[in-house]
Amino acid sequence: MQGQPAKKEAEAGRTGPLDELSAVLDSDMRQVNARILKCMESDVALIPRLARYLIAAGGKRIRPLLTLAGASIYNAPMEKVWPLAAAVEFIHTATLLHDDVVDESAERRGQKAANMIFGNKASVLVGDFLFSKSFQLMVESDSLEILGILADAAAVIAQGEVKQLTTANNIETPLAAYMDVIESKTAALFAASCQIGPVLTQAGQEQSMAMRNYGMKIGNAFQIVDDILDYSADPQKWGKDIGDDFKEGKMTAPVIFALESADEVERSFWRRTVGDKIISEGDFEAALDLINRHNGLQKSAELAKAQIVEAKESLALAPTHPMRATLLELADFVIQRAN
Question: How many CA atoms lie within 13 A of 125 on its CB side?
Answer without folding.
Answer: 9
